[in-house]
Design a protein that fits this description.
Blueprint lengths: L5 H12 L5 H9 L7 H13 L4 E3 L7 E3 L6 E5 L5 E4 L5 H15 L9 E4 L2 H6 L4
Parallel strand pairs: 3-5
Antiparallel strand pairs: 1-2, 3-4
Length: about 130
């Protein structure tokens, strides 16, 4: 990982301010304060931060990857219409997660050390506005 830089500091600041932003959204936010930053610099730094496990990359099959500064285990919900990502803390009781781990272990023999659970659907705002039709 490269040393600390002004660009990386601005990227982390923007990442914490925005809600699961894309690289382009981070770039747009930073340009307000630091107009010279390139989109390539943002992509490169986000990739390095994600590869180093300092941030989470949330891949999207139907759009741009989003990023999360919170690396503690938690689950996400993705709206398939607008692309918004929601954090889901404490949604599943610990017993349900343990039960799921046990089922995976029994079925595959895999000793589960971590999990990434993501729910997809239509958020209430898109449903209310009928943006999905």
């Amino acid at each position: 990982m490269k040393r600390h830089s002004k660009q990386r500091e601005l990227i982390m600041k923007s990442l914490k301010k925005l809600d699961h932003p894309t690289a382009a959204e981070i770039h747009d936010d930073i340009k307000l304060e630091y107009p010279k930053i390139s989109l390539g610099t943002v992509y490169r730094n986000l990739s390095e931060l994600a590869d180093s496990k300092i941030i989470l990359r949330l891949p999207s099959s139907d759009g741009a990857d989003r990023f999360d500064w919170n690396t503690d285990e938690h689950f996400h919900a993705h709206c398939t219409v607008c692309g918004k990502v929601f954090d889901l803390f404490g949604l599943l009781p610990r017993e349900a997660v343990d039960s799921l781990d046990k089922a995976v272990e029994e079925h595959t023999g895999l000793s589960v050390s971590s999990r990434e659970i993501s729910f997809k659907g239509i958020c209430k705002d898109c449903a209310k506005n009928k943006n999905f039709q």
